Recover the amino acids of this structure.
C-alpha cells in the first residue's frame, strides 16, 4: 500500500514509518519544515510538504494514497480549542477525500474520559462529540464516515507511549520533578494510567492498517492500570529526588498544566484488540523504562 502519514516525523510517527516500510509499504510523510522533510527522507519515506493547517496538502496527500494514518496533532495546551478546530478540519478534509473508496483512515485518539473509575474497553463509545469536544470531537466525526464508504479506525493510545527520547507526558513529569526537587502524585495516587511502549504501538498501527477485520476502535495499551503513585515514585528514583503527594489545591502550582491530566484515572484494556489482531506487546514496561534511564540518561 501507499500510505499517507501525518505526524510522520513525530514521536509515534517516526516509529510507525519504519514499521510500515519494513512490511513492504510505501510511505508519503507529511512534513511542515525542512528538518521534518529531511527526517522523513532519512527514514526511507517520501516527504510531502504541508501542514495540518494546509488543507490542500492534506487533501492531495490522501488522494495520492491507498490509505491514511493520521498521527499529527497541534499539541498547543495554551489553545486547545484552536487545536481542536484544526483537528476537525483535518479529519473532514482527509476523510472527505477518501469517502466512497473503501480505503482505510486510521487516526490518533486517546483513552481519556472514556470510563473514569473503571478500565475502559474498545466497546466504550467516545463521550466527546461535537466541534467543542476534546480534539474537536475528531473520533466521533471520523467514525461517522463508516457510513460513507470509508474504513475508519480510531487508534486510542495510552496516555504514556513511552521509550527513550520520549518528549510526551512522562518526560514532562520528569522535568517537573527536577524543577520542583520532588516527584509528586495527586491525592492518594490511586488513580491509574495505561501505558504502551512506542515499538508496540507502531506495530499495532501497521496491523490495524493491514487487517480489514481490525474493527472501528483499537487500543494501543500494554499495561492497563499503573497507579500514578507508582509512576511518581519511579520518576523520583530515576531523577534522585524524594516523592510525595500534593493536595488538589496544590496541583497547579506544583505541576502546571499537566497536573489536571496526572490526576485523571486513565486505565484501559486492550484485550479485544489483542484477540482481533493477534497483537501481543513485547516492549519493556513504563516503570522498567524509567528504572533503565530512558528519561534521565543523556
Amino acid at each position: 500500500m501507499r500510505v499517507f502519514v501525518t505526524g510522520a516525523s513525530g514521536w509515534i510517527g517516526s516509529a510507525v514509518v519504519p514499521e510500515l516500510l519494513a512490511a513492504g509499504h510505501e510511505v508519503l510523510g507529511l512534513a511542515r519544515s525542512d528538518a521534518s522533510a529531511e527526517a522523513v527522507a532519512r527514514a526511507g519515506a517520501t516527504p510531502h510538504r504541508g501542514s495540518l493547517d494546509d488543507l490542500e496538502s492534506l487533501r492531495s496527500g490522501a488522494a495520492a494514497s491507498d490509505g491514511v494514518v493520521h498521527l499529527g496533532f497541534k499539541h498547543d495546551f495554551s489553545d486547545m480549542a484552536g487545536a481542536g478546530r484544526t483537528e476537525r478540519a483535518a479529519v473532514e478534509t482527509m476523510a472527505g477525500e477518501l469517502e466512497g473508496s473503501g480505503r482505510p483512515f486510521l487516526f490518533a485518539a486517546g483513552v481519556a474520559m472514556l470510563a473514569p473509575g473503571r478500565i475502559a474497553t474498545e466497546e466504550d463509545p467516545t463521550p466527546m462529540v461535537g466541534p467543542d469536544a476534546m480534539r474537536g470531537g475528531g473520533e466521533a466525526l471520523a467514525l461517522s464516515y463508516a457510513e460513507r464508504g470509508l474504513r475508519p479506525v480510531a487508534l486510542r493510545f495510552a496516555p504514556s507511549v513511552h521509550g527513550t527520547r520520549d518528549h510526551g507526558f512522562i518526560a514532562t513529569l520528569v522535568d517537573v520533578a527536577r524543577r520542583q526537587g520532588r516527584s509528586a502524585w495527586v491525592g492518594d495516587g490511586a488513580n491509574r494510567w495505561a501505558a504502551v511502549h512506542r515499538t508496540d504501538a507502531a506495530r499495532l498501527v501497521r496491523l490495524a492498517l493491514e487487517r480489514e477485520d481490525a474493527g472501528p476502535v483499537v487500543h494501543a495499551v500494554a499495561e492497563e492500570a499503573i497507579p500514578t503513585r507508582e509512576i511518581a515514585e519511579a520518576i523520583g528514583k530515576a531523577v534522585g529526588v524524594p516523592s510525595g503527594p500534593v493536595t488538589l489545591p496544590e496541583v497547579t502550582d506544583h505541576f502546571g498544566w499537566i497536573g489536571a491530566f496526572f490526576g485523571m484515572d486513565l486505565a484501559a484494556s486492550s484485550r479485544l484488540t489483542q484477540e482481533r489482531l493477534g497483537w501481543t506487546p513485547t516492549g519493556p514496561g513504563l516503570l522498567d523504562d524509567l528504572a533503565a534511564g530512558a528519561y534521565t540518561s543523556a
Q: What stands out?
A: The first helix runs from residue 13 to 22. The first strand starts at residue 2 and ends at 6. The two ends are 38 Å apart (CA to CA). The chain has a mean pLDDT of 93.
